[in-house]
Amino acid sequence: MRLVSYNIHKGIGGSDRLYRLERVVRVIEHEHPDLICLQEVDRNVSRSRFHDQPRLLAEHFGFAHSLFQFNHKVKDGGYGNLVLSRWPVREHHHLSLRLGSKKNRGAQLAVVETPCGALRLVNWHLGLAEAERQWQVRHLLQHGLFRGLDDLPTLIAGDCNDWRNTLAKGAFAGSGLLPLTTPPSRFRSFPAWLPLGSLDKAFACPRVRLERAHVVRSRLAQRASDHLPLVVDFELDSGA
């Protein structure tokens, strides 16, 4: 099974600043994912020609389920997170990760019925401040809707903005969720044209068996967004 996590930067290229959603689509298509976790997806914003990107992406890929979480308002539109799943989604929730007066951030929580069993999947986009990110991780892990699914294998992916790579030994410590994107030096994803930071990360419980994780470094990916996409190949522990 393959998951792609990708901050698409509203379809605007990081180096040329041109809006070209088709480049993002081509990057994702090349990886043939089963699950797509996107961040910074626009809807009805002038910079992206007032496109309804969640609808356009859902229609293009034609997956069984599409879940959009609207997080940040921009005039009459805004942007947020999007999950596309090749397989049915049994249950889903949109959780706020907003801390005080900071920009609204969110996490999408879904139970996906994969061919190997149910998976607790989280797609999120964390804040820019260290203390904010640590709080957001703890908030999710302690949330009643998340804890109510503790019996399921778990995979969390998204733009963590974790420049200092402190989340694994910070808020995730003792949670049973381990980083799949380690060592960070192998997973530098931002900025796309000269990656310095390992911002796009994945965490999972031991029941999610990692086969391979990598960052896509194609020439097209370097132009399509200001982040490079993260690809995670995994299986679920059938003996669990």
Task: Describe the 3D structure.
- By secondary structure, the chain is of the alpha+beta class.
- It has one domain (about 1-235): Endonuclease/exonuclease/phosphatase (Deoxyribonuclease I, Chain A).
- The chain has five helices and twelve strands.
- It has helices spanning about 20-30, 55-60, 130-140, 145, 220-225, and strands at about 1-5, 35-45, 65-75, 75-85, 90-95, 105-115, 115-125, 155-160, 180, 200-205, 210-215, 230-235.
- The strands form two sheets. A six-stranded mixed sheet has the order 3-4-2-1-12-11. Strands 5-6-7-8-10-9 form a six-stranded mixed sheet, with no helix packed on it.
- Strand 3 (about 65-75) and strand 4 form a beta hairpin.
- The model has no long low-confidence stretch (mean pLDDT about 95).
Can you tell me the number of structural domains?
1
* Helix share bin: 10-25%
Query: Number of helix segments?
Result: 5
Question: What would CATH call the homologous superfamily?
Answer: Endonuclease/exonuclease/phosphatase
- One letter per element, helices H and strands E, the order comes to EHEHEEEEEHHEEEEHE
CATH topology: Deoxyribonuclease I, Chain A
* Arithmetic mean pLDDT: 96
Descriptors for this entry?
240 residues; 5 helices; six-stranded mixed beta sheet; Deoxyribonuclease I, Chain A; 12 strands; globular; single chain
